[in-house]
What we know:
The complex is a heterodimer. Chain A contains eight helices and two strands. By secondary structure, chain A is mainly α. In chain A, helix 1 (4-32) packs parallel to helix 3 and helix 4 packs antiparallel against helix 5. Chain B has a single domain (3-131), classed as Phosphotransferase system, mannose-type IIA component (Rossmann fold), CATH 3.40.50.510. Chain B has five helices and four strands. Chain A: This is Dihydroxyacetone kinase.
Amino acid sequence: xxxxxxFRRWMTAAAASVDREAQRLTDLDSPIGDADHxxxxxxxxxxxxxxxxxxxxxxxxxxxxxxxxxxxxxxxGASGPLYGTLLRRAGKALGDAxxxxxxxxxxxxRAGVDGVMTLGGAAPGDKTMIDALxxxxxxxxxxxxxxxxxxxxxxxxxxxxxxxxGRASYLGARSIGHQDPGATSSALLIAALEDAAEDGR
Amino acid sequence: MSDDxxxxxxxxxxxxxxxxxxxxxxxxxxxxxxxxPVAPAGGTEAGGLxxSAELISAAAASVDRGAGVAVxxxxxxxxxTVKALLAEGGELPDGTRLxxxxxxxxxxxxxxxxxxxxxxxxxxxAAAEAYGYRKV
Lengths: 201, 136
């Protein structure tokens, strides 16, 4: 079972991972975006970790809802409301339960991904974070390692796609051949689930 | 309708200068629109290009006279942040609405319409109608 502490470790691991990969995310965002994805997420997840340390919500849902709120408030780019909505919707879906299982987490993340698709209007194949998140949620029933592999595969699979959402879509066919930064950071977020599970052992 | 019940207008841009200038332009072109509460919410809190949820919330609160608040945005994160704040609940005044309109033309139409004492529906309709003003 996954408790609030697991979800705090997940957010901390995600923050560490974003810190480590910030330059790569920004580099990916340079040819097809505005070269701020790494620094924006770094600012957001730093605020998430600080808020979780200060408030320490007692439930998994509380942790994700607070994290989502922080991302919406602090990121300053489109990834803020998008990741914020993902985590907030997932947090709301988990409700007040003190512990949840992987199946409930998968369902909650699916609700979060639905919220992201509604907010941003993206569908699978549009070269967005959805292309990493949806396969990960589908694979979550087989464990965190499977979800991580699916997310990483999904991120790499955005390379040949033409962007249909966000700033990259202005580039049309010139967006082809670049890995989507949002899908890449989504894979980091999913990979951090496995880190959180290992840290708890 | 008294002046203190005008619809408020918030202009959200990635750039502080764009938001402030469009607010000034709209008020200037609207003539006697001094009574319309208009607030820009441009850029990040640090003064860079981007969107600040805090600046948007503060701007909406500052123009809320109880008759609703029309929010116009430029693009990308400006739109998504307003939508996410509306979905959060409690972050923006009751009666705040994201208006689907071109930023500059819509802002002028919204301020002119709000100056007449029109309600939020009418302000929204006028701003949205600005999509139809062809230039050639």
